[in-house]
Each structure stands twice: as C-alpha cells, then as structure tokens.
Specification:
The complex is a heterotrimer of chains A (about 775), B (about 170) and C (about 280).
Chain A (H helix, E strand, L loop, with lengths): L13 H5 L14 E8 L5 E7 L1 H4 L4 E6 H6 L31 E2 L5 E7 L2 H10 L1 E6 L6 H5 L14 E8 L1 H9 L3 E12 L8 E7 L4 E6 L4 H10 L9 E4 L15 H13 L2 E5 L2 H7 L3 E12 L5 E11 L29 E8 L14 H19 L3 H8 L6 E2 L5 E2 L4 H11 L5 H10 L3 E10 L7 H6 L8 E7 L5 E5 L8 H13 L6 E4 L17 H27 L7 E4 L2 E4 L5 E3 H10 L12 E6 L8 E11 L4 E12 L6 H21 L30 E4 L17 H18 L10 H16 L1
Parallel strand pairs in A: 1-12, 10-11, 14-15, 20-21, 27-28
Antiparallel strand pairs in A: 1-5, 2-4, 2-6, 3-5, 7-15, 8-13, 9-10, 9-12, 13-14, 16-17, 18-26, 19-20, 19-25, 22-23, 23-24, 26-27
Helix pairs in contact in A: 10-19, 15-16, 18-19
Chain B lengths: L1 E8 L3 H9 L1 H7 L3 E7 L3 E10 L2 E15 L3 E9 L5 E13 L2 E13 L1 H30 L16 H9 L4
Antiparallel strand pairs in B: 1-7, 2-3, 3-4, 4-5, 5-6, 6-7
Helix pairs in contact in B: 2-3
Chain C lengths: L4 E4 L3 H10 L3 E4 L5 H6 L7 E4 L9 E4 L14 E5 L4 H5 L2 H6 L1 H8 L4 H6 L2 H7 L6 H7 L3 E4 L3 E3 H4 L14 E7 L3 E8 L6 E9 L5 E6 L7 E2 L1 H9 L3 H5 L16 H18 L1
Parallel strand pairs in C: 1-3, 2-3
Antiparallel strand pairs in C: 4-5, 5-8, 6-7, 6-8, 9-10, 10-11, 11-12
The chains are: A alpha+beta (about 775), B alpha+beta (about 170), C alpha+beta (about 280).
C-alpha cells in the first residue's frame, strides 16, 4: 500500500508513546540537579510588604530562596506581549509590567512571589511552605464587565479603568445605517465561557547553566522552542541566542497553552545561573489550573439586521475580553485579529463592525486556546444565525444557504479575503448524513418517550495557516509567521527532515514523512523527522493555529524542490542525459523512456563522495527553505448536532454529531479524523462540561477534576466525520489545516440543538444538567405567564 | 458565603455582653481553638486546628472585636493562615436585643477561604462555614446559660466528630 | 506528600492498638480519599496503618433467614460485609446480587474501575463524605456497624458531614444488615467528580418498614427523608415518590447545582430508585 499523500499510515510515534517510552521534559535528569518550588499568592490582589525566608534558608537541603527583587535586579526583563494592538483613538495598548516573580504586588491567585531551590522536590515544597509572605490584601475584580465599571479596583497603574485597549474593525457608519434600515433585527447577549487548557502533560522545565562555557540549556514543554529562545534572549536578557539552547522533547499536548514563555521557565534559567545547579520544575495539576494561560472568556452583545428577503445587511458586535492579570504572549491578538476578522462567517455581509475592549482582571492570564478567537467568532455568528431563523420562523439551513458566500475570492469587510470553499456542498453533505429531513419524525418519537429532541447547525469558517508575515506585521505582530525546513539526504539515501514545526500530538513524524515518500517514491521508514531542538533545526515558528500542514509542510516542499533540482543535475550528469529527461519515481532517478537509472541511495552516495558530480557543484545533498504563506487558509464546514434532553434532570445526550469539513488536501485521513474527533470532544467539552469558576474574591473554585469537568469517552457520541473539500490555492499542497476545526465549529451546534430541544434560547455554556434544567423551568414559567 | 441566624439566650444583654468580651469564653467557643492570647481591646492571637474528613489544617491568626456598642452590638472577626491549605477569614456582626427574660442574639456571618481550601474544597466550604458558625454560637449559648464559665475540658479542640459527637462525649454519652 | 510511617496491621485488634498508639495515626484501607489528600499536602498523618490485607475484614457472608413461615417472600437474609471489602468485590458478588441487588448496583457505580478495585466499604463510611454512596445505603437499610469495641446503628453512626460516632482507636470490622424485601438506589452524579449530586436509597424491610436516605444533597451529609418515607410507607410506588413535594430547605448549593435543583433531583431519583427496586 502506498505511504504517500492520502494513505492511512499508522502513527510512527505511537509505539514509544503507548509503551511508555516517550521522553518528556520531566524524564530528563541532569547530574546534580536541584528542584524548584514556587511560593504562590493565595490572594487575588495584594501588596507584598515583605518575604521572610529565614526558616526555609535554615533547612537542610535548601540551596537558595530567590525573590522578584533579585530577579529584576539581575536585569531579567518583564514578560512581553508579542502583538501590539492599537486602540480606536490611535493610542498603543496600556500594558502593565509582569515580572516572572512578583515584586511589590500580586494580581491573581497563583502569582509567584519567590522560588525555593533545594536538593529534592520534597525539601523544596516543605521549604516553600515555610516562607512567610506579608500580604496586604487589595480589592479584587474577576469579570471583564465589572472591571470596566466605575470604581472598579485598579489592577495596573498604567491601564486606567483596567482598559488595555479599545479596538475596532470594519465599517461603523455604514453598519449603523444598514441596521437602522433593516427589516428585521436580531439582538443577543452572548457569553463565551472561560476554559482551562488541561494538556495531559503538565508544564515542566529543566535549566542548566554551564559556567565554564557561559552557556544555558533549557528543556521545556514548548510548542515553539525557537520562539522561546528568541524571547528569552531578546526580551528577558537570560543569554544571547548563541549561548542558549532550547529543547522541547516529547510534549504531551498543548492546545495553545505551551506557546507562551511562562515565569517558571524564566525563573529556572535564572536560578540555574544563581545557584550553579541544574534546576527542574514540573507543574502539578493544581498549579496547572492556577498558572497555565486560560482560554476564551468573552462577554458579547451582537446585533444583526436582515432585509425583507432575509439577506443579512449588517452585523455589529461589541465584545469585552477578559485578559486576566497580565498580558500573555498573544493575548492581544486572540480577541482582536484572530476573532473579529472572522465575524462575517460563511456569509456575504456588506457591513460588519466590531469593537473589542481588552480588560485586566484579577484572574489567570488568558490567551489562545485551541481555535483562539475563531471559536468565539463562530459561536457569535452561528448562535445569531440560528436565533435569526427562529425569530423569522424559517428553516435555519435555508437561511444560511441564502446568505452563503458563493464566489471566491471573497473580500469581507473585516480584512479576510476567503480564497476557496463550497459552503453549500458541505451543508448538503452534512444534512444528508444527519437525515435532517427525518428529524421531525424523530422528535415526535422522542416526545412519546418523554424526551425533548433538538437539532442545531453550525457553519463555521476559520483562518488558519498563520500567517503571511508582512500582513501580520502590519497588524502589530512582533514576529514573522513563516516556517523553515531542511531536507537532508544522507549518503545512504535515508532522509532527515528538520522542521521548525513542533509536534505535541499532531503526528508530524507520520504525515511529514508521507509527503517526502510521495515525492521521492521512498518508504516512510527511510525518512525521519527532527524537530524541537534549537541546536539542530535552523529556525522555526512552531505549531499553533493549524499551521504545521499549510505552512510547515509547504516549507518542506520548497526544500524538496531544491533537493529535486540537485538530484536531477547529478542524475543527468551520471546517466549522461539531459536534465529535462530525468524523472524521479519509485525511489530511483531515471532517464525518461530508457532503462537507465540510479537508485536513490546511489544518488546520495554520488553527492557525498563527489567523485563524479557536475563541475562546480558543491558536494552533499542537503537543502533548506523558508516558506512564507501568501494568505491565510480558510477551512470551513457544516456541523449538525442532534440531542435529547431529559426534562426531569436536564441531562443532555448527544444522539448524533455530523461533521462535514473542507480541509483542502488531506495527507493522512486517519490522523485528520483523529484531529476532528479530538476537536469535537473539546468543543463539546466547552459547550456542555467545562468552565473555570471564580468566586468574587478571585479564588478559583474549579481548580481540580473534582470540580472542573473534562468530557469523558461516554459523554461524546460516535461521530460521523466526512469531508467535502476544495483545494486551497494558496500553498503548494492545497492544504487548509484541520487541528482546530472541531473545537471551533462544535459549540454553537451543541447549544443550538439544546436550545431547540428545550424551547428556551437563553442558555449559556457550559450547558450542564443544572443549567439546562433551570432554563427549562424558566421556559415553563414564561409559558405559564 | 453569608448566613444569618438568630437564637434566644436565657440571660440578660449585660450578661451576654460580658461573656462575649471574656477571652476564656471566646477561646472555648471558637471551634478547634488550641491557643488564644490577648484581650478584647487589642485583639487576640489564636491557633485553631480544623479537620474536615481527612484534611487537617492548623490556622495561626488573629481574632478581633470591633464596632463595639455595649451592650447592643459588635463585630467579631478572625483571620488565619493555614500554611499549604491557604487562608480562612470570617466575621460575624452580632446584635443583642432584650427579649423578655433573655436576649435575642442575631448574627450575620460572612466567611471566606482562599488557596487550596477554595481550589479543592469548594463543594463543602459553605456547609462547613455554616456549621462552624452554628457551633460557635451554640457553644456560646451553652456557656452563658450554664453560668458563664467554660468547663475545663473545653480547651480541647472540637474533635472530628463535630459538635454533637463532642457534646455526647462530654456528657459521657455515645 | 509528607513523610509518614507505614504499618501493615496483622488483624483488626492490632490495627486498633496501632491506631490508639498515636494521636495522628490514620487507618489506610483503599486510600481513595486519604492518599490524594496526602498528596495535596492537606493531611499529614504520622502513621499509616494498612488494613487492606487483613483476611477477617474482607468478604461477604449471607446467612439465610431463620423464620420459615414466609420463605417465598424476598429478603430477610443477614448480610455481612467486611470493612476492607472493595467496591469491586461487592459489585461482583453473585450471591449478594441475588439477595440485595441495590447494593451491588450501587457499588458498581462508585467512581471508576481503579477506585472500585481499591476503595472499600469501611473506608467510605468512616470518611462519611457528604456525597458518598454507601452512607445512604447503610442508613436506609438500617445497618449495624461493627467495630473493634462495639456495634453502632447506622442512625447513630453518621453524625454529619465527614463525621461519625467512631472514637479514637476504634476500627470498623464489618457492616451487617437484613436483606430488604425491596430496595433501590437512584444516583445523579456530579458530572466532574461523579460523586452523588443526589443519591436516594429506598428500602422496604420484610416487615414493611420503609426507610429513605439521601446523600449528596444535604448541607450536613447523609440524612433520612421523612416525607418520602411516609409517602412510600402508604404507597410503595414510583408515582408516590414523585408526588412528594421536596423542599430546598437545608440542601446544598454549590457550583454544580443549587438547592432547588437538588430538591428536584431528590424527587426524580427517589422515583427512579423505587422503579428499580
């Protein structure tokens, strides 16, 4: 069976993962390593009047206790936000200082004020418990709306009223005018719940300072080790880049939360220099809830206008985005450029306007989490569409069909230019598979059993493959978002692909080898992937935003183009033929129309022995490429969810979930289906189970699995996953990306289905049994009135 | 968590007031109080041990009496650091109103916890706080109605069995 | 986890004496609550006394009823379950399933497989978590708790959330109860922890006495529900249970559900418990 593009090649990485042979950061053991334990604030907002570490320092096995004043005193820089967002009035964002260890003020529960370095983890923890911190508590605010209210506690001096930015996009006056003259108006308040990322492997770091070479090595759980090195070097002044090696070995899931460079990694590096020991820290699950960047947390008011033919004439959206106590690396981009640029959805809308306020609160920093901005946009749009259909009394599928973008390229009023798609085709495929026509019959049958059945649509679109560097640069990004690759053909013909993408569950070791196998006709077992080490890979921007396929693999293709060109030259020279007659197939270099050929390994050997290569050609066979995309890619699809609600308990059971996606070219359908399954589970998790809960004092009440509900296998149905693809014109493989679609498209489908079942459109996520039951009570109370 | 309750104590407001200001009474009433030093004017420092199921936490902190309006009302507040467990703080606005032969004691309690106690124990925090408040004022009532002097054994922390089990043991029951 | 000293008790008496020897000692049965609490550093027992290997504390015995007159009617056997018997062993005991399927069904739905293979009935009731399943069963079945020093009725044993009548140095050996004529358990799990948001155990003895207990919902742990008991005494039927107006007074509100929701669930779970009985 072919192992090339389109083959269901089993994941090469799974053997080591499922036999317990993965090598994660916490598995790395350095000689004479010490352990870090952080002293964290139990208060959400307080002044730090003093730290007494005398008891800790007196304990046997304690190497040192370090604090924020020492850290800043050593010139370690404040943590940065890598994307500058400009407010409506042209002013830059108001960003408060974030030191890896707090100096004078703590701003969320879990904010680190000191670190203990000790000979063992147990001693470090015991010593950290003995550190006495004199806190003077300050008033606390946890919600974005409350934080913007007059008289709210002030969290950072240089962000008056806790407003970080007040940003806008789209055409305001025309949108207002369109809404004013619209025949129908749909208006909604929409909340997007706060989520904890919960990768299976918690964050971890082990830093080693080599005094004799003045060099640092950091193993860490990163989705982008080169970006980590760049930021640690350029902004945090830990060490210049050539004196700092960052390695992200096997990483057990990220979902965005491992993009960022957190206080703990910075502190471990610095502490390694201070103590001249290797310093290791591994988060426990509670620390993960308290310190991993959370996702979502939007409060939105949206207004949509439709004309008498039910064509959408305008959409206006206001969103208050809770960014937590400090600005994480991409926190400003997530609720602006990654969100509001998708508010046109799959629809041809002439007038769209959105404004977004980014707000400081006394909560964990909020940043990108699987989907990052796009789930929020699709939730707004698809809840609005379903509500509009209900309000107008029309079929939700018909209403969508009427408003779809049908010609490409399509320029939306909110920056994005959609390059391809066939939204009606995806919708038809999903409706057929879900037997939409037979739904009313099933609803009636369920009613006989005392169950409430509902159906909901979600027609999502996302922008992936981030992103054209010049474009994101003009929007405020601090980095370019290209990707690099190197293809090394060894003298024996085996191939190593060095990629700047990083696999933490995506299966790159499998899919990336498939495109090479396809190109050169080689078995995948002769190809390996090298990634995650700044000393090995030339550079890379990492993996997030469903970019590894569209951008990372495109870079490999570009490098393969160069390899192919050189191979053809060598082949032509050795086989004494014209370059134009050389073809590469089945692992051999052949002269078209003859039986003359060189086997692939003979080409490798020829290149490295250099006994007989064209005059002037450099020996060796190794090429690299940097690929910068020309546009975003636009995966889209139609999801249909069918549920049954038990009115006695409010329990919702998903009976059927149908997903029709347009991902462009698919390299490995098995891996793509797995990505969709995982994304759907996460989206269903957001819709029905997950939610971070804070009390008004900023205490996180859901900081363990006793209270934070992850979806389990028996909570989700057997999905119907299918594809109806159009090729992406923007990259050589025609790929769009599949990593986030499930999480982006599914929440509105679930909520639309549940609200359809219960006859009450007023339902927030997570739609837990108690929330659904309360909405049912409200509906029956309203019906009685 | 906020809760409000009222109980009628068979003693006049002056007697009740005096009992509230008595450090020995206060110490006996704070559930799990092991040590308390200080006075009503300047406040007390206290060590309190609490057990909830397998959890055991020792809180070191302060107890203050404030807004004193003798013999009508005052606020009792406390705050303790429980080490790895986090912190707990609470206050009760207490009002005394003559009620026939006795005194109607109304209390408005607010309790907060932070750190691990909040992160891991949210499902039981409110119940536990209301139980503590109930134990505090029940004990106070018992002492005042019993003549104002705490029994010698009350210096022991209330055991895991809770107030009723403790009471049963105290009187040789169970 | 803080440092602790591990003891393997040879028998129940030895466990009791080891327990009495140190004021900060703890019995380790299945460790499904204690060990996570220790890992969170919220418990620091000086000594752990492991009773899981003690043969006399394990297993289920069923003694046939002595009255011969009513042999055809169900129930009446004396059932004894050793304190260190795991949930898995209870759930998979065929004789017990024949005599009292409500309790084997309850055990089969505690936690997950890992919990069921380690967790024990004695550990569950000694901890008396306000959302645990076994306290509801034992209270409704009118069970007796046998300890190293005495026998305690379930009514006296459960004294509020996380508290029991156990004294220092007292170790549970077993629990016993008479197999009911009919019994059922309706459980609505908290989606996150799968502890009971509400669990209602209904039991009718061979003498016709009805007892109904509720776990998960009370603000001070497991309790008997007088309204449901009286309704089911006069008419043992799902409709009768569903007809009881359950008030929210004294019920728990937390981030998973408020008191009104729990009150509703008590009615629904009681109805389903009777249906399953």
């Amino acid at each position: 069976m072919s192992e090339g593009i389109g083959a269901r090649v089993l994941r090469k990485e799974d053997k080591r993962f499922i036999t317990g042979k993965g090598r994660y950061t916490d598995d790395i053991i350095e000689p004479n390593q010490a352990y870090a334990a952080f002293v964290r604030s139990p208060h959400a907002h307080a002044k730090v009047n003093g730290i007494d570490a005398s008891a800790a320092l007196a304990m046997d096995g304690v190497v040192d206790v370090l604090n924020g004043h020492q850290l800043t005193g050593d010139g370690i820089g404040n943590i940065i936000c890598g994307w500058g967002v400009t407010s409506k009035d042209g002013t830059p964002m108001n960003m408060g200082a974030w030191s890896a260890l707090a100096t004078d003020t703590v701003r969320y529960v879990g904010d680190a004020v000191a670190v203990v370095i000790a000979d063992s983890k147990e001693i470090a923890k015991l010593a950290a418990e003995s550190v006495v911190v004199d806190y003077e508590t300050l008033p606390v605010v946890v919600g974005s709306v409350e934080a913007l209210a007059d008289g709210a506690p002030q969290i950072h001096e240089n962000a008056p009223g806790n407003l970080i930015f007040d940003w806008e996009i789209g055409n305001k006056e025309p949108t207002d005018a369109a809404l004013a003259s619209a025949e129908h108006i749909v208006e909604m308040d929409i909340v997007n719940n706060r989520l904890a990322p919960n990768p299976m492997e918690p964050r971890s770091a082990i830093a080693t300072f080599n005094e004799s070479e003045d060099h640092y090595t950091l193993y860490t759980t990163s989705q982008n080790p080169h970006v980590a090195r760049l930021v640690l070097s350029a902004f945090y002044n830990v060490a210049p880049e050539h004196k700092l090696r960052v390695i992200a070995p096997d990483v057990g899931g990220g979902f965005g939360s491992k993009i960022y460079i957190y206080p703990e990694e910075i502190t471990c590096l610095w502490a390694s220099m201070k103590t001249n020991r290797s310093v290791k820290w591994t988060s426990d699950r509670t620390e993960a809830f308290l310190t991993d960047a959370h996702g979502r947390d939007h409060v939105t008011h949206a207004t949509m206008g439709l004309d008498k033919n039910h064509k959408i004439v305008g959409l206006k959206v206001n969103t208050k985005a809770n960014l937590g106590a400090y600005m994480s690396l991409f926190s400003s981009a997530t609720p602006t450029y990654l969100y509001a640029t998708l508010l046109s959805g799959q629809y041809n809308i002439e007038n769209v306007y959105a404004d977004v306020q980014g707000v400081y609160t006394n909560t964990v920093p909020v940043d990108a989490y699987r989907g990052a901005g796009r789930p929020e946009a699709s939730f707004v749009m698809e809840r609005m569409m379903e509500t509009a259909a209900r309000q107008l009394g029309v079929d939700p599928a018909e209403l969508r069909l009427k408003n779809f973008v049908k010609e490409f390229p399509h320029q939306t009023p909110v920056i994005m230019a959609y390059d391809s798609g066939d939204f009606a085709a995806n919708q038809k495929q999903a409706m057929d598979a879900a037997d939409y026509k037979g739904f009313e019959k099933r609803r009636a049958e369920a009613a006989k059993r005392g169950k409430l059945r509902g159906i909901g649509f979600s027609n999502y679109i996302e922008a992936c493959g981030i992103a054209p560097s010049a474009a994101v640069g003009s929007l405020g990004a601090g980095v370019g978002l290209w990707e690099s690759a190197e293809v090394r053909v060894n003298p024996v013909g085996t191939i190593e692909i060095l990629t700047g993408s990083h696999s933490h569950g995506q299966g790159h070791e499998t899919t990336f080898t498939q495109i090479v196998a396809e190109r050169f006709g080689l078995p995948t077992e002769n190809i390996s992937i090298v990634h995650g080490d700044t000393d090995k890979v030339q550079f890379g921007m990492g993996t997030y935003g469903s970019r590894s396929g569209a951008v990372g693999m495109s870079a490999i293709v570009k490098a393969m183009d160069k390899v192919e060109a050189k191979v053809k030259k060598i082949g032509a020279h050795v086989l004494e033929a014209s370059e134009d007659d050389i073809i590469i197939e089945d692992g051999a270099v052949k002269v078209k129309g003859t039986d003359k050929q060189m086997l692939w390994h003979e080409v490798g050997l020829a290149a490295y022995t250099a006994h007989n290569i064209p005059e002037g050609m450099e020996p060796g066979l190794k090429e690299s490429a940097f690929y910068d995309p020309s546009n975003f890619t636009f995966p889209a699809g139609c999801y249909i969810c069918e549920v049954e609600v038990d009115p006695e308990t409010g329990v919702t059971k998903i009976i059927q979930f149908t997903a029709s996606d347009d991902f462009g070219t698919i390299i490995n359908p098995m891996i793509v289906e797995g990505q969709v399954h995982g994304g759907l589970a996460q989206g269903i998790g957001q819709a029905m189970f997950e939610g971070v809960v804070y009390d008004p004092d900023g205490q996180q009440l859901s900081a363990s699995y006793m209270d934070y509900c992850m979806p389990r296998a028996d909570d989700v149905p057997m999905y119907q996953v299918m594809h109806q693809s159009t090729e992406c014109p923007g990259n050589p493989l025609g790929m769009k990306g599949c990593g986030e679609a499930g999480a982006i498209g599914s929440p509105p489908a679930v909520i639309n289905a549940i609200t359809d079942a219960i006859g009450n459109n007023n339902l927030n996520m997570p739609a837990t049994p108690s929330a659904v039951w309360a909405a049912l009570q409200e509906a029956s109370k309203q019906a009685a009135e | 968590m906020e809760l409000k309750d009222t109980r009628v104590i068979k003693a006049d407001p002056a007697t009740v007031w005096k009992a509230i200001l008595d450090p020995e009474v206060l110490k006996a009433c704070v559930p799990g109080c092991q040590e308390m030093t200080g006075n009503a004017e300047q406040g007390f420092t206290a060590t309190v041990v609490q057990r909830v199921g397998p959890v055991k936490a020792t809180f070191k902190g302060i107890v203050n009496l404030s807004d004193m309006n003798a013999p009508n009302s005052l606020t009792i507040s406390g705050e303790g650091q429980g080490g790895v467990a986090g912190f707990a703080k609470g206050g009760a606005d207490v009002t005394l109103t003559p009620n026939g032969e006795g005194t109607e004691l109304t209390y408005n309690v607010e309790a907060k916890v932070g750190g691990k106690l909040a992160q891991l124990g949210s499902r039981i925090i409110d119940s536990f706080a209301s139980k503590m408040a109930d134990q505090f004022f029940q004990k106070f009532q018992d002492i005042v109605e019993g003549g104002g002097a705490p029994a010698a054994s009350t210096a022991q922390p209330v055991k895991q069995g809770g107030f009723w089990a403790w009471l049963k043991r105290l009187f040789g029951g169970a | 986890m803080y440092t602790t000293k591990y003891h393997k008790a040879s028998d129940a008496a030895n466990a009791a004496s080891l327990l009495g020897a140190s004021p900060e000692a703890k019995i380790l049965a299945g460790g499904q609550t204690l060990i996570p609490t220790m890992k969170q550093r919220l418990a620091a027992p000086t000594d752990l006394i492991d009773i899981s290997g003690i043969a006399e504390l394990r297993g289920v015995t069923i003694e046939a009823r002595k009255k011969l007159g009513v042999l055809k009617a169900k129930g009446g056997e004396t059932i004894t379950i050793g304190a260190a018997t795991t949930h898995y062993e209870v759930a998979n005991n065929a004789d017990l399933a024949a005599a009292c399927p409500a309790i084997t069904g309850l055990a089969a739905n505690i936690g997950d497989p890992a919990v069921r293979h380690r967790g024990t009935i004695g550990g569950s009731i000694a901890n008396n978590d306000p959302a645990a399943d076994y306290p509801a069963a034992l209270l409704a079945l009118g069970a007796t708790i046998h300890t190293t020093s005495r026998d305690i009725s379930a009514d006296d044993f459960f004294t509020g959330m996380f508290s029991t009548a156990l004294n220092d140095g007292e170790v549970i050996k077993s629990v016993s109860f008479q197999a009911p004529a009919a019994a059922g358990y309706g459980k609505f799990p908290v989606p996150a922890s799968r502890y009971a948001m509400v669990g209602v155990f209904v039991a009718k003895s061979i003498d016709g006495d009805v007892r109904v207990s509720v776990t998960g919902a009370g603000d001070d742990g497991v309790f008997r529900h007088a309204g449901l008991e009286s309704a089911l005494t006069s008419d043992w039927s799902p409709a009768s249970a569903a007809g009881v107006n359950v008030g929210a007074e004294g019920l728990l509100s937390d981030i998973h559900g408020n008191a009104a929701y729990r009150a509703n669930l008590i009615g629904v779970m009681a109805k389903r418990a009777v249906e399953s009985a």
